[in-house]
Design goal:
The structure holds three protein chains of three kinds. Chain A is of the alpha/beta class. Helix content of chain A is about 30%, strand content about 25%. A nine-stranded mixed β-sheet of chain C has the order 7-6-5-8-4-1-2-3-9, with helices on both faces. Classes of the chains: A alpha/beta, B mainly alpha, C alpha/beta. The interface between A and C is large, with 80 and 83 residues. Bound molecules: flavin-adenine dinucleotide and iron/sulfur cluster (2 copies).
């Protein structure tokens, strides 16, 4: 079985005091640490488990900058067989659409049985790229998978739908599945595991290799531009409510409402 | 004279010896087949120290009397074994040259009395096995009991003793004159000489293999500090070049680790001291050895073919479960207790190394390990904030040391004291004491990363190496006279896992020095409470520091101290440090809870400790056992600070 | 006049929010597309939209993204509406990007607000799990736009009543399903997943007894959140381990975290990520939780919790 899994490197912002930089279009990154997008990690594990069961190869792909190769190495350490790094200065600041077209170009003409994505990314949170690629390649899509097995030319996918329900579907392969967290228990990747794959060759494909319009690919293809990043209004430290119980609870209702709790 | 059924005694003896020798050679060859395939482990050198251990712990049985009855019985049996082996030898020679190896009257009397004592010991030991059944003999996790084997061996020994007595008519047993008629002494003679050979051949088949391997095992025991972890491989120093790491099958053990398993007496002393066993986790160290030994016997049988690894149950995963391995806090109580110097921590770490390499890490540990890698601390806190606690010390007193700068005492806080708000209080107290005593103190701030002590012990060697490299870089670009730390795990790591020129000392040792030098203006704490000191495993057992913290504690005027029953070498682990705090091992009770119970048992109201994790674990246990207000946990530095500040001071906020 | 198509997922809040969003963009003709709707639901939609196009229900009667795409795509291509709106729900996610790709529209995902700004469409959305907001702009697009809306974000402006023309439509004859529904699973009642909850009410040892948990449980229900707890509560077996938050428990990333009788230990707060809006109720003014919380209420939880629940229920009805 030929499995492709598309992954992304994202910033881990937990514990970090986020600040927007002076351009207003990016965050101060000094305190960020970077890692594979959590959902993608589950997708890689799902791909590797399927390969371990059914044989075949797993190829991990990312569209990203030079440093993003790190997540491909990680995927290789988890058991992917090959990786493909779609990297070109012309891809910088690609939006979801541009990324989807780059991935579609990279995947076109390959024999694919299963194409896995993380359902969303922790940074942009658009939940879009997997579905766009499915549309561009005209493959069936099932999103938010919480269980996945393969049975001959079909996949059996359980996925999250409305009102906390889940639905089990049978999908003809090849198909695009976006993976929800909790679908499996991703294996640990040791520091040595990463170092062991350090020498593995990861081909880098840019506009030329992918047969895309040469110049300013991203800015020409992007459909959405970022105008501004800003921080939602935030309180500093605990604001201690005053007054009688009655008064305090009224204030609290007000605050809950303002902060999306009601 | 020893002819029997018309065959000459010499011929019979020769036949017996040949049979026994070939059987024993064959059996031992099979047993040692696994050892020949095992990984390398250098255990040479330091012959003087080895000899000393052999004499004291091996022949001297120094660790036996810790369990009085069993210990004394064993000493009698062992001494009897030594005394009577001479006698046995003479009896073997007898058919060839009667009277040739005559040992004289005094020896005859000695061996008669010894025989009697041994016989009585056998009876008492059998009685203990069958009637008393000390809890230690039966392991909760054992699938089979070794009572039958023990009784068989005791029985054989008893037969030997009785036969021996009958041979030339020990007066006390037979009432016969020294030269009894042939119909008693001849059969007794042959029963004795046959039994002893059968006995020898039976030894390597079960736990009594230790009769053969224990002394070599003690002689070859580990001379490194117990806090030092063996490298992943002794034959390949380049970690990245290793084909596989850790132990996943029998053949991956070093020869010494296999010899350990062969030498286990199944006495249960290790598990009796093991906090993981006491709290009902899946781990029993004794069973690690017993199960390994049984697996080795099954894979390398005396008769039949060797079973290849893929046809056996997985050593790590099935025979020994992941949960067992993750339950160990590496406290070292087992190794301290074992009478034959069996080593556990290295073996557990080696098996964990395999699990980590195989990606089989408990989910709860993945985040802290990733955080260690990315941010240098298991909490995922921003590295930048590591030195922020110094703001709490008297302004400007503790510097963040920049590259190229120098100081007298470099305070290595490690992650817990740097980030846990409760433990920051310890760091602040210690730093205040240092600066008040005029010690030029600094810390690394954001350039320190976790020592990696626990990462290494959890089997993540690569991560440990990366952390060590960062710390070494930071340390080497600064000058300092010594490193001080309030974290025994950091102490152990910097001393045993790192190579640092300058001395590394623990804050209890620094406090003791300052006390000696008259630089601790201690004032009376007239709170009339009873204090006890809890020995942190990595300060006491692993680094031998028991006295300094006690000296400091006892120097505080006005306080009364008691010792817990399990103190010093026998201290009971609080639950373990660093990564252990992220795991929730299945257990009946928490180690910390048992420990505060022990403190309460001796009437202690304040438990003083000298480790951030002990502090956190025990403080938690005070809450969960409902002792809030009745018992306080405090770090030694905090207590000293309180005493310096005077009795008026409120107790530290908990 | 601009044409705005909305794809209906449910007939309650969702339809209302889609209508409100469509109306918030100024004068427009709104069309609701729906697969399978009972008579009264069609009427309800007719009140909200100018036109309601009703396709036959999917084979199993449930939302089936692939089938819906097959039904609505020809309409999108032939009628070329300015904007297509869907909810950014699980079901919306299963459909929206497919439609965007196949109708060649820029997709603005998970929008908190939308604004027509010729020549294009602007939106505000969140990134980094809500920690950052982004103002984005979809460039001029001859094919029109597609946006998904954060559920609950478009509730302020009441939709204007629509003209309500009902139109029956048929499914494409050549529709060949490539995915088939085998089964719908209802979550088993016992299993909780606090890691996915947007609102958590965490209870600590201040609750004192197991019986008292009830008041916090019903507060959580009133808020539409899950009940979580500290370790001592699990130790006492008052709640299951799957509700424990902390370094040795679960890591949660809710939007709202209401801590009741929780002291705020390092080990507990180590499991609370994503900077939620944190409210603490504790009787001890010195409790460390107040250093981390956004709002602190000093007082007795046994008085405050029932009172709060009462107020919430009053507010909601
Ligand atoms: C290794 C280790 C791992 C741990 N892992 C976790 C973990 O994963 N998760 C976790 O939660 N803990 C964990 N802990 C325990 C943690 O350190 C704290 O002990 C625990 O979180 C405290 O729980 P609590 O806040 O419920 O209790 P307490 O600290 O006892 O706090 C109770 C609070 O309730 C308040 N209160 C009491 N009565 C009332 C009232 N009537 N009205 C209002 N307020 C009241 C009190 O003022 C107090 O602040 C761990 C500890 C250790 C040592
Ligand atoms: S090191 Fe401690 S916890 Fe581990 S097996 Fe030995 S006694 Fe038990
Ligand atoms: S390992 Fe040592 S202490 Fe433990 S049972 Fe074996 S001999 Fe006894």
């Amino acid at each position: 079985m030929e499995i492709y899994v598309c992954i992304k490197r994202v910033a881990d912002t937990s514990e970090v005091e986020i600040e927007v930089d002076r351009s207003g279009l990016a965050l101060e990154e000094a305190d960020f640490s970077w890692d594979i997008n959590e959902w993608d990690n589950f997708a890689v594990e799902a791909a590797v488990q399927l390969k371990e069961q059914h044989g075949g190869t797993v190829t991990a792909i990312t569209v990203g900058g030079e440093d993003d190769e790190e997540v491909l190495r990680r995927a290789l350490a988890m058991g992917c067989d090959q990786a493909l790094h779609c990297y070109d200065p012309a891809f910088e600041k690609a939006d979801a659409w541009a990324i989807a077209t780059i991935l579609a170009a990279a995947l076109k003409g390959r024999a694919i049985d299963l194409l896995l994505f993380g359902a969303v990314s922790a940074d942009e949170g658009r939940g879009q790229v997997g579905g766009l690629v499915a549309g561009l390649l005209d493959l069936p899509l099932v999103s938010l998978a919480t269980a996945l097995t393969v049975d001959g030319a079909k996949a059996i996918v359980q996925h999250e739908v409305e009102n906390g329900l889940e639905r089990v579907r049978e999908v003809d392969l090849p198909a695009v599945i976006t993976v929800q967290t909790g679908i499996n228990e991703p294996r640990y990747v040791s520091v040595r595991g990463i170092r062991k794959v350090a020498a593995m060759d990861i081909p880098v494909h840019g506009v030329a290799e992918l047969g895309l319009a040469a110049e300013n690919y991203a800015s020409q293809t992007n459909r959405i531009t970022l105008e501004e990043l800003f921080l939602p209004p935030q309180g500093v430290g605990a604001q201690i409510l005053e007054g009688s119980n009655e008064e305090m609870m009224n204030q609290l209702i007000q605050l809950l409402q303002e902060n999306g709790g009601l | 004279m020893y002819d029997i059924l018309g065959v000459s005694g010499a011929a019979v003896q020769t036949l017996l010896l040949l049979l026994a020798a070939s059987a024993l050679t064959y059996i031992l060859r099979r047993r040692f087949g696994l050892l020949r395939l095992a990984a390398a482990e250098p255990r040479g050198g330091h012959w003087g120290e080895r000899l000393r251990r052999l004499l004291v712990i091996g022949f001297g049985q120094a660790r036996q009397p810790r369990y009085l009855v069993a210990g004394v019985l064993h000493i009698i049996l062992f001494a009897g074994f030594l005394v009577l082996s001479l006698r046995s030898l003479s009896l073997m020679v007898e058919p060839y040259a009667p009277g040739f190896l005559s040992l004289g009257e005094p020896y005859a009397t000695l061996k008669d009395w010894t025989g009697l004592l041994v016989l009585l010991s056998c009876v008492v030991a059998a009685w203990r096995r069958v009637v008393v059944k000390p809890a230690r003999y039966h392991d909760r996790h054992a699938s089979q009991s070794h009572t039958a084997e023990a009784l068989l061996i005791l029985g054989l020994i008893a037969v030997l003793m009785i036969a021996d007595a009958l041979i030339d008519g020990s007066f006390w047993l037979t009432g016969l004159s020294p030269n009894p008629p042939g119909e008693i002494n001849l059969p007794a003679f042959w029963i004795h000489n046959t039994t002893i050979l059968i006995f020898l051949c039976l030894l390597p088949l079960g736990k009594h293999f230790h009769v053969i391997t224990a002394l070599p095992n003690v002689f070859l025991s580990n001379l490194n500090p117990s806090g030092k972890i063996k490298p992943p491989s002794y034959s390949e120093s380049n970690f990245d070049a290793l084909e596989s790491v850790g132990v996943s099958k029998l053949e991956d053990f070093t020869w010494k680790q296999t010899l350990d398993a062969y030498s286990c007496v199944d006495c249960g002393r290790c598990s009796d001291h093991c906090p993981a066993y006491a709290t009902g986790t899946p781990l029993s160290p004794r069973m690690l050895s017993i199960k390994t030994r049984d697996a080795a016997y099954a894979a390398y049988p005396i008769l039949g073919n060797i079973v290849p690894p893929q046809e056996r149950p997985a050593l790590v995963g099935e025979t020994i479960t992941d949960a067992e391995l993750w339950s160990c806090t590496t406290c070292g109580a087992c190794e301290e207790a074992c009478p034959v110097m069996i080593e556990y921590i290295d073996r557990i770490v080696d098996m964990r190394r395999f699990l980590v390499d195989d990606g089989r890490l408990p989910a709860a540990l993945q985040k802290p390990l990733a955080a260690l890698e990315k941010r240098g601390n298991p909490y995922g806190k921003m590295a930048r904030k590591r030195g922020e606690w110094v703001a709490e010390v008297a302004p400007g007193e503790v510097r963040i040391l920049a590259p190229g700068e120098s100081c007298e005492a470099l305070y290595f806080t490690d992650s817990c004291a740097a980030f846990d708000p409760r433990v920051q209080q310890t760091a602040v107290a210690f730093a205040n004491i240092l600066t008040q005593a005029g010690v030029n103190t600094a810390t690394l701030g954001a350039e320190e990363v976790d020592s990696g002590h626990e990462a290494r012990r959890f089997g993540e060697e690569g991560l440990f190496m990366a952390l060590r490299e960062k710390n070494m870089e930071a340390l080497e670009s600064r000058s300092f006279q010594r490193i001080v730390t309030s974290d025994p795990h950091a102490l152990n790591s910097l001393r045993n896992d790192y190579t640092i020129q300058q001395p590394v000392v623990h804050h209890s040792q620094v406090l003791a020095e300052l006390l000696q030098a008259g630089k601790l203006p201690l004032q009376a704490l007239a709170d009339h409470r009873r204090y006890t000191f809890h020995d942190p495993c990595y300060l006491g057992r692993h680094n031998g520091e028991y006295q300094n913290p006690r000296s400091v504690l006892e120097a505080i005027p006005g306080i009364q101290t008691v010792e817990m029953e399990r103190s010093r070498k026998r201290s009971f682990c609080c639950g373990g440090g660093s990564l252990n705090l992220f795991q929730e091992t299945e257990c009946d009770r928490r180690m910390g809870e048992m420990r505060v119970d022990m403190a309460a048992d001796v009437g202690a109201e304040v438990v003083v400790t000298a480790c951030p994790f002990c502090l956190v674990n025990l403080e938690d246990a005070v809450k969960t056992t409902g002792r809030e207000g009745a018992m306080e946990i405090i770090d030694l530095a905090e207590l000293v600070q309180r005493s310096i500040n005077g009795a008026e001071q409120q107790p530290l906020e908990v | 006049m601009r044409e705005i198509f909305v794809i209906i997922e449910d007939f309650g809040d969702g339809a209302w929010e889609l209508a409100a969003a469509a109306r918030s963009l100024g004068e427009a003709r709104t069309t609701a597309l729906v697969c399978g709707a009972a008579e009264e639901n069609q009427q309800a939609l007719a009140k909200l939209f100018d036109r309601v196009v009703v396709f036959p229900a999917s084979a199993d009667g449930n939302w089936d993204a692939e089938y819906i795409a097959a039904c609505v795509l020809p309409r999108l291509l032939s009628e070329q509406p300015y904007l297509v709106l869907l909810l950014h729900s699980n079901n919306g996610l299963d459909l929206a990007p497919l439609l965007a790709a196949k109708s060649n529209r820029p997709m603005l995902a998970d929008c908190l607000s939308l604004e027509v700004r010729e020549p294009g469409l602007a939106a505000v959305r969140t990134t980094f799990g809500g920690k950052v907001r982004a103002r984005i702009f979809a460039k001029e697009s001859s094919a029109g736009y597609l946006a998904t809306l954060r559920p609950g974000a478009f509730t302020t402006s009441a939709p204007v009543e629509g003209a309500g023309i009902l139109e029956g439509a048929t499914a494409p004859a050549d529709y060949q399903p490539r995915r088939r529904c085998l089964q719908t699973l209802t979550p088993d009642a016992g299993a909780v997943d606090i890691t996915q909850a947007a609102i958590l009410v965490a209870v600590g040892r201040g609750i004192e007894e197991q019986e008292n948990l009830e008041i916090v449980q019903s507060l959580a229900e009133a808020l539409g959140g899950e009940l979580a707890c500290t370790r001592p509560v699990v130790d006492k077996k008052w709640l299951e381990k799957s509700r424990q938050v902390g370094t040795s428990g679960l890591t949660v990333k809710p939007k709202i975290y209401l801590a009741v009788g929780v002291s705020g230990s390092f080990q507990h707060l180590g499991g609370v990520k994503g900077k939620p809006y944190m409210i603490a109720i504790n009787q001890d003014p010195a409790a460390p939780i107040f250093a981390t919380a956004d709002v602190g209420i000093i007082g007795d939880l046994f008085e405050l919790v029932p009172l709060l629940e009462e107020k919430i229920r009053a507010h909601k009805s």
